[in-house]
Specification:
Layout (H helix, E strand, L loop, with lengths): L29 H7 L6 E5 L4 E2 L4 H11 L4 E5 L18 E5 L5 H5 L25 H12 L5 E3 L1 H5 L5 E3 L4 E3 L2 H5 L3 E3 L4 H12 L13 E5 L9 E4 L19 H7 L5 H5 L7 E3 L17 E4 L3 H4 L3 H13 L8 E6 L6 E5 L8 H8 L6 E2 L1 H7 L9 H6 L2 E3 L1 E2 L10 H5 L4 E2 L2 H14 L6 E2 L1 E3 L9 E2 L2 H6 L14 E2 L3 H11 L6 E2 L7 H4 L3 H10 L4 E7 L3 H7 L4 H17 L5 E8 L6 H13 L8 E2 L7 H8 L22 H11 L7 H10 L28 H4 L37
Helix pairs in contact: 11-24, 18-20, 20-22, 23-25
Length: about 750
Amino acid sequence: MTVAVPKALTAHRPFWAKRFGPAPFLPMSRAEMDQLGWDSCDVIVVTGDAYVDHPSFGMAVIGRVLEAQGFRVGIIAQPDWQSTEPFKALGRPNLFFGIAAGNMDSMINHYTADRKIRSEDAYTPGGEAGRRPDRATLVYTQRCQQAFKDVPVVIGGIEASLRRIAHYDYWQDKVRHSLLADSKADLLVYGNAERAIVEIAHRLARREPIEAMTDIRGTAFMVRQDHAPQGFFELDSTEVDQPGRIDEHINPYLTTEAVAAAKGQSCEAGAQAGGGDVAVVAMPVSRKAGAVKLPPREQTVIRLPAYEQVKSDPVLYAHASRVLHLETNPGNARALVQRHGTGASARDVWINPPPIPLATAEMDHVFDLPYARSPHPRYADEQGGHDGPTRIPAWEMIRFSVNIMRGCFGGCTFCSITEHEGRIIQSRSEDSIVREIEDMRDKVKGFTGVVSDLGGPTANMYRLGCKSRDIEAACRKPSCVYPGICANLNTDHAPLIHLYRRARQLRGVKKILIGSGLRYDLAVQSPEYVKELVTHHVGGYLKIAPEHTEGGPLSKMMKPGIGTYDRFRQMFEAATAAAGKKQYLIPYFIAAHPGTSDEDMMNLALWLKRNGFKADQVQTFYPSPMATATAMYHSGLNPLKGVHRDARGERVDVVRGERRRRLHKAFLRWHDPRNWPLLRQALQDMGRADLIGNGRHQLIPTHQPATDCGYQSARRKNSTEPGARAEPAVARRGQILTRHTGLPPMPGVRRKPR
């Protein structure tokens, strides 16, 4: 099986407005448009983030990619959504509005894992909170439609991408419609969307109606059943535990009429029901009935359970989640369709297969575009310069970092990178990366010679991938590294080592740090890489994320066992000693993840104490839309093992309720006296009162101090007990910044360590 080669990003004939050339910054006002000689914008991007013209920010990537195609692109950043006037600031776009909530989901941006309002927004000048609405994509779409009713609206970014089907909403504790159905946008673009957004722009420029754009990969659209795309064979997957056929199977290549005629029946009633010439076979099909010859995947669409079904049936919700995650490989994914509504108002959300990953040359093209690599001058003009209160925390964090790749084949169930960016690694060329470092050195104010990060969603997946394109295109596994590293996975770190060495030799570069999370189960496959990393690229602390120590929760996360961490730790400490340095590992863990029992957290706390770790900041599981772990949280089932209504379905221990979630966090912070009363009661209830006392092998003391005894976290007092490892001042994992997701494409990510 091979994937068709798509049209290259640079192969399109440029739009006539290319004569204007690139803008220093994409305009945010009419005055800037006048200075550029524009009478109008072809595309207007609306975003919930401040406009930073840097390839780590989605609005900049989309804008510059479209600009390179010859289109005039304007930016409306963080508009006041209380009226339509801010959405009219640049006039009527000639082609479409592109809308996204920003680099983060607006709900995760606003609320902690405990549903408490955050006090800061890293993507806003000065970190000011409240500059974007809840469900920003939905609100922005409504305002654009009110301002210009006849202008097409295309939604994208992380918020839209992870809400492309009916999804569980943690903040309302219910299943919501697809965002496409709620917003009534014309198209939804998901994943790495450069190909899709360029195709949409050129086709609209040719005056093709947006309703006709039903064949673009990486997009979703709404359609009435009687207007569905023709020539598709529909697999019915609206139910689980179907018995399968024991009689003759339908030949999927025959029309419904031909099948009926072969049986001496009439299908007139079926044709009147709107089925067209699409044959339907239930799925899954019983193996006892024999193999079914199916049509090519590109001619197949899978019908998921309807919104009305999944909103009230957790089993069907878990089933829909499982099917969706099985259809994420661009090489073999099939289209999906999900009914929303009943009766005459019913419409289908049709989701085309994921986009074909960008080739290295295309990645270079995207990252080599003329980004200003700084915030728009408006922010300096408004508040007096980048050294004042106008600082944008997310920009400061990635200001001196370089993104070298996209995607992640880890498949961690609590993470949405794989569903969003895909599991196929898209790497830049070494030359392109070096050019960006040199541009940063020469053009970015304040560069001192230290590159803060050379990474991506994962630090060490650069140029890794399947050894065979045919195997990769046919693979249906959700992870290439769980339960073990696939034999077909190339784990050679030599290209990354060579990149590190070349980058270190650049004039003006004093130090290159690796700030992205490290996949340590891959790193141990390359002792040379570990030595290179530890010797040259660790700034005292290296963040990694075993996430847990116990097999139960790790199996639900699809993470390796703690033994792999121990192996990496030994290699890290040996390389640190050989380099004559004092460097420490900072492991991260998740509390309250589905599949985690109270005993699991107790055992993790004991491991932390034995190893001298005192975590200052911890993460509680956050059920983000569309993640597999979120399906576990909502349904209580494990979609990784198949979904059944009987005892064959694996039930998952779901940590709900404020008290139990607090308990799991308290186990992670076993050293904090404020948590001791809760832990004492829990240990007594668990029959483990033997862990209460002042002995070396006991977890917490018997008596509560009258005060906190001057307790300070390791980060605040910057010291620890003998043998303990201090934790540096790092961003809370719930707030660690993504480096992308402004609009459809995902150029890379800074996320919690892997």
